[in-house]
């Protein structure tokens, strides 16, 4: 039976690409599928693009492929990456220029059509309300402040790009698992519109493979378990990202490159399987609805787990859409306090800052207070009975204001505390300029209105 080996690439913008090298050298892989776009990454890229219109793609793309392409090309390994972000064409141009300067050859395809900011009015005129997915609030609340809007595309345009002969496929916003599903559809000839349950189940298996690999090291023992469990995962410093050996019927074996750290077993795979899942019987994607309740995981030993039994059904008629909008400005400050009474000192400064803000009439929408080392993770669930025992406390305060002047002025309320506040204060991080905040607006849009906008373009670089 024919089989294809997929390697996990990055799990987010800024992730470590060294484990990909091990997968190419020792993992006998055919594809590297790399997810550069976490939920908030488009907001980061929008800020880059505001400073430089030619930006908007992930800046790790060129150095990553510059390091990996020679060995990948020699091994016949192809890349599928959503590193195009808000500017897939710009990502392609940067990569073409870098490859040409080195005298390398490659066929690079770009998938576009997910960017919908310029189509919002047309979509609304066609009956799309684009209401907030969680609150049902109308998009009118943020319409004038929108700075990007992107639909989550599926596997189809990536399949088209691979069929055109691309060695490297660059996309913008696509469903994470579609990066992995597309090569399977291309290689095995699976239909995206199967006429039977078996066909949908194959797609569901492929989607599940993508779900298990999309978070890089998290699928191989990174970020694993509760107290004590993570300490038993060997050599996280040299972790091997997961690899899926997928068969034509959709079954797969999850493993990693030999000689690498991390662990692939029933427990690490199961944890990743349930990551970011609301309803395991209806895991939605643009290509198939996955039912995880029928999945079987069989531990085979030697860092190998078999995946089988996923069920699938037709995808929804809508695609997820995420938009970003201007949401004011943030000013912040951090400073530390030493024992004795570290927490009491920090709380006294909070009270002083609030008084100053009231006296200066600093209008704001939100004020955030956290005590690093005490409640920055646990919030109201932190154990307050041990506050007096803390050796040190770091106070972080942040304000959100529609007026940039308020956000700029906020950190200037703190420095005088060094000589006129509670004793044993230190570590003030300095006065930083206000930073613009972007809010996220999740929604959905009819796929029939988006699919005609999607295009695939192939470029070739020669020495």
TrEMBL record:
Provenance organism: Roseateles toxinivorans
UniProt keyword annotations, A-Z: Isomerase
Record bears the keyword Isomerase: yes
GO function terms (MF aspect): isomerase activity
Protein name: Protein-disulfide isomerase-like protein with CxxC motif
Lineage: superkingdom: Bacteria
All copies of domain Acyclic terpene utilisation N-terminal, residue ranges: 4-454
Pfam families: AtuA
């Amino acid at each position: 039976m024919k089989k294809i080996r997929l390697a996990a690439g990055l799990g987010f913008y800024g992730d470590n690409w060294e484990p990909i090298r091990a997968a190419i050298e020792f993992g006998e892989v055919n594809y590297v599928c790399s997810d550069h776009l976490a939920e908030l990454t488009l907001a980061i890229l929008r800020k880059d693009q505001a400073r430089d219109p030619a930006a908007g793609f992930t800046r790790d793309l060129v150095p990553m492929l510059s390091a990996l392409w020679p060995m990948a090309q020699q091994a016949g390994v192809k890349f599928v990456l959503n590193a195009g972000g808000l500017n897939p064409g710009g990502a392609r141009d940067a990569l073409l220029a870098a490859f040409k300067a080195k005298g390398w050859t490659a066929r690079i395809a770009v998938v576009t059509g997910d960017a919908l900011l310029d189509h919002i009015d047309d979509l609304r005129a066609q009956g799309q309300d684009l209401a907030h997915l969680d609150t049902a609030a109308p998009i009118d609340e943020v319409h004038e402040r929108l700075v990007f809007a992107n639909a989550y595309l599926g596997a189809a345009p990536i399949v088209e790009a691979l069929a055109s002969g691309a060695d490297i496929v660059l996309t913008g916003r696509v469903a994470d698992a579609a990066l992995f599903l597309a090569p399977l559809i291309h290689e095995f000839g699976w239909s995206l519109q199967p006429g039977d349950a078996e066909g949908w189940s194959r797609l569901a298996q492929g989607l599940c493979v993508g779900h298990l690999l999309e978070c890089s090291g998290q699928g191989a023992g990174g970020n694993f378990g509760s107290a004590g469990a993570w300490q038993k995962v060997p050599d996280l410093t040299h972790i091997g990202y997961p690899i899926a050996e997928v068969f034509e019927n959709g079954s797969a074996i999850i493993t990693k490159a030999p000689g690498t750290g991390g662990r692939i077993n029933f427990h690490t795979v199961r944890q990743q399987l349930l990551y970011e899942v609301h309803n395991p019987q209806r895991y939605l994607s643009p290509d198939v609805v996955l039912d995880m309740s029928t999945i079987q995981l069989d531990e085979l030993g030697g860092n190998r787990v078999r995946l089988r039994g996923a069920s699938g059904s037709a995808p929804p008629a809508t695609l997820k859409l995420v938009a970003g909008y201007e949401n004011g400005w943030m000013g912040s400050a951090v400073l530390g306090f030493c024992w004795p009474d570290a927490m009491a000192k920090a709380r006294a400064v909070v009270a002083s800052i609030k008084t100053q803000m009231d006296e200066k009439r600093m209008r704001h929408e939100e004020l955030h207070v956290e005590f690093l080392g005490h409640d920055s993770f646990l919030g109201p669930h932190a154990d307050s009975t041990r506050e007096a025992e803390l050796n040190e406390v770091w106070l972080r305060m942040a304000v959100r204001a529609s007026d940039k002047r308020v956000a700029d002025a906020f950190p200037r309320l703190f420095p005088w505390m060094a000589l006129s506040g509670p004793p044993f204060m230190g570590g003030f991080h300095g006065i930083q300029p206000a930073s613009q905040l972007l809010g996220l607006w999740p929604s959905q849009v009819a796929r029939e209105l988006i699919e005609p906008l999607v295009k695939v373009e192939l470029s070739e670089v020669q020495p």
